[in-house]
Please model this.
Amino acid sequence: MISKDYVIMAPEGIHARPATALVRLSKQFQSAIYLKRGDTTVRLNSLLNILAMNAKGGETLSVLVEGPDEDSAASAVDLFFTEQLKDL
Model:
């Protein structure tokens, strides 16, 4: 299992557009990808799960990746959070 923390740099947090992009990204991999905020952990296969987290700008989220292609999945998620999230 790979785990990494990210600070949400986008002031709007994770709203519908980036949440949709995360679901699409997660569906490209066999590995299970989860978002964790505090005591809440959701799988990135549901738009509603992600939106229900209500992640705001400046908050820290953990990403957990587990499965056969976890290295490539973790790299793709890392790119999303460090490069693409701020542009959505």
